[in-house]
Structures are given as structure tokens and as C-alpha cells.
Amino acid sequence: MDGPFNREEPAAMDSAIYQDTDRAYAMFNGLRLDSHFQPIFSLAHQRVIGFEALMRATDSDGRPHGPHEVFANTRSYTDTVLLDRLCRATHLYNFARQDPAGSWLFLNINPRVIAEGRRSGSFLQLKFEQLGFPPQRVVIEIVEGAHADEASLVESVRHYRELGCLIAIDDFGAGHSNFDRICRLRPDIVKLDRSIVAQAAVDPGIRSIVPGMVSLLHESGSLVVMEGIETENEAMVAMDADADFVQGYYFARPVPLAVVDQPPGFGQLFDQFQDIALRERTGYRTEIAPYLNSVGYATVLLQSSHPLDVACKGFLDLPRAERCFMLDGEGRQIGANINSPHSRMESNPRLVPLRDADGANWSRRHYFRRAISRPEKVQVTRPYLSAATATPCITISIAFKIRGERRVLCGDLRWDESHGQP
Fold first, then answer.
1. Among 257, 263, 320, 394, which residue has the fewest nearby CB atoms (within 10 Å)?
2. Do 226 and 351 share a domain, yes or no?
3. Is residue 58 included in any domain, yes or no?
4. H helices within 146-265, ranges in order?
């Protein structure tokens, strides 16, 4: 039995941790517990920045048992704490012996144990002192889920942070996830649940909202990991969403040593992302060009005293056009919408309360603010949810003058998830 584990620990733990050559392993209820480490990469730095420690359990016949199964079979809270400590001690010893180039060590703590962080004693602090391992290189992962005692959870997070550790929320986006907990715990890192990445890779609608989720997490002060990435398409989701870090089989599988034998080709990944983005922009510009030209030409007709419906006819005859409307210099709508014959608003009786937009104030909208800031230049928004149809659209706008009065002409297009981005 190795020395670092036989001081100030329960007798059960002393007898359960062993050393095999230069590695530690633990025994619990007839199972051998070993460490595996999965690399976590920074997309910007294009290298490993940390490793998540994962428990691997096998019985006497060499059959594997998953972590959830092992923890589910503990007989009491005391056994759960012991098992959790055995795993963490084993991971810390194996990682510290390798000391992989200043990387973070991501340590999972069982949800039943995490809420008792301060009350469960100075276990981690003792391990840091015994191993001479700096706590600032440890990231404590808190599984995102239902915690009955939020106050205890907040107190425990404070405890681990006072030790010097970083805090990560794991599996965010699944189960009981909410941004309220992010605001209370202020994690340094948030790991998005695997299900979000998997769905975004096959559903363009979900993919379109993931960048906004990442942006909100960044604004809250958290770095973002996308985990469970297994395919190139899922890697592109992470690239497009501006995730900071990535983890998954596509990049590297968990291995007994905290090393990366063959780092992934990040240069090639960035080249592929740029190619995809260029194709999307090129296709977008080609498709939207007739709409831009039609809105620009409509202002010429309006300045020549043509009525709005006549000036906008060329735009409204295009296949994706929804409506045109005019705003004054303060963003208030002048008159009613001029709808396309195929407008979704006209065909949806549930939207009747929104049909009359005369006098509505749209000064908060990006299409108005962009147009006012760059007069005489046609502007276009990113896709957003239209208040008129409750479906995705983009708005083309241009600020111009009629008899000395500032006006902003706007045209809406249907824009579903199969189209590219501006």
C-alpha cells in the first residue's frame, strides 16, 4: 500500500487503496477501481488543456461495471462517501504521478456527496497536501440535476472554491438545467450535455439556437465545453457555436494515462469549417440578392411618389417575401403591412391580434437601428422569430428620405432552418 494514502483516513479506506507498479487502484465491494483520463481540448489553442478522470470498475472475472451501477449498489450514504473518495484519491494519485504539462484535472463528485462538501471534512485538502498537487489545477464537476438543498450546494461550491479549485457544471441542458443555477453558482466552466450536441448535429433548428446558449454562458462568465463529440458534423457544431473546449471520441478516447498519442488535426478542422462557412455565405448571398435589389429599387419608386403597394410589388412577387412596411424616423410604423399573397400571417387565424401593426414601435429592432446608422445602404438581419408570424424570418431594411422626412422601408422574408446565415 502506498504511503500517501495511509494517514488520517478511515480504516476502510486505508485497506482499499493499493499500488500496482507506478499506478494506484482501489478495491470496493469486490470490484477493482482504476483511472482512465479523457483529454479536453481548447479549439483556439489547438491543444490539450485538461483531462477528465473517469472511473473504470471490473470484477474478479474482468467484467466491466459502469460508474452509475457501482454507485447505485452502495448500501448507505457512508458507503457512497467512501466510494467517492476512493475514486478521487485514485485519480489524484495517478494524475499527479504523470503531471501532464500543467493541465487541469476534471474530477467528478457524486451528487449525494457534493452537497456535503464542507461538512464532509478536509479530504481534498489533505490529498493536495500529501501529493503536493496544486488545487488550482483541479476542476470540480457538479452534475447538473435536481438538488434538494440548494443552500447546501451553494455552500459546498464556496468550500471547493476556497480550497483553490475551479468549478464546472456538468451535463448542462439536460433534466433540471436552468440559468438561475448558473447565476447562483457562478461556475468557471459549463459542460453542455451530450444530447444538445447530438440533436444540433441533425436538427438545423436546434443548431441555430446553440450559439445563443453559448453566448449567454460566456456573458455569465463561464467558459464552455461541448462534450460527447463523436463525429465531424458534431465538431462543426462546436466550431460554429464558439465553444471554448471540446471533448469526445472524435478527438480522443479515455485511456489509462493522461497523454495524447496522436493529437487531432485542428488545422484541417479549421479549414473544413472555413470551407463550410464560405459555401453558406456564398449560397446565402446568391439567394438573397434579388430581395436586396427589389427593396433598394422600391425606395426609388417611393421617392417618385409611387404608393407603397406599387413600389413593393417586385419584392412581394418573390417566392419568400412575406410583407413590406414603412417606419418613420423614430421607428413607428406608418400604415398597415403590405402582405404577399402567400403570407403566413394572412393564412393563420391564431395571429389575428397581431395583424394591425399601424403605429407599432419597432425602434428596438436591429433592422431599424442598422438602417438608421447607415442611411441609403441596404441592411439585412440574422434570422429571428417574427412577431407577425411566429416563424423564423429575416428583415431587409433601408433608411432614405422622402421630401426631407426620414423613412425606413422594411421587407420580411420567410427563412427556415434549411437556409444559411447572413
1. 263
2. no
3. yes
4. 150-163, 179-185, 194-202, 204-219, 232-241
Report the helix count and the strand count for the chain, using DSSP H and E: 15, 17
Task: State which amino acid sits at residue 392.
Answer: P
Backbone angles phi, psi at 19, to 5 degrees: -125, 130
**Is the distance from CB of 166 to CB of 139 less than 8 angstroms?**
yes
What count of other Cβ atoms lies within 10 Å of the Cβ of residue 261? 7
* Ranges 28-37, 93-102, 253-262, 338-347: which has the least confidence: 338-347
Q: Is the pLDDT of residue 409 over 90?
A: yes
- Name which of 85, 129, 132 is nearest 107 in CA terms: 85
Asked if residue 422 belongs to a domain, the reply is: no
The residues, ordered by sequence, that sit 6+ positions from 117 with a Cβ below 8 Å of its Cβ are 109, 155, 156, 157, 159, 160
| Residue 287: how many other CB atoms lie within 10 Å | 14
The Cα 264–Cα 100 span in angstroms is 18
3-state secondary structure of 165: coil
Rounded to the nearest 5 percent, the helix, strand and coil shares of the chain are 40, 25, 35
Strand 23-28 and strand 47-58: the pairing is unpaired
Q: Which three cell numbers stand for residue 130?
A: 500529501
Looking up residue 337, the CATH number of its domain turns out to be 3.30.450.20
- The CA distance from 108 to 333, in Å, is 55
Give residue 30's domain range.
Answer: 3-254
Go through 135-165 and write b for each residue having 16 or more CB atoms within 10 A of its CB, e for each that does not: bebbbbbbbbeebeeeebbbebbebbbebeb
pLDDT digits (tens, 9 = 90+) for 197-223: 999 998 877 888 898 899 999 999 999
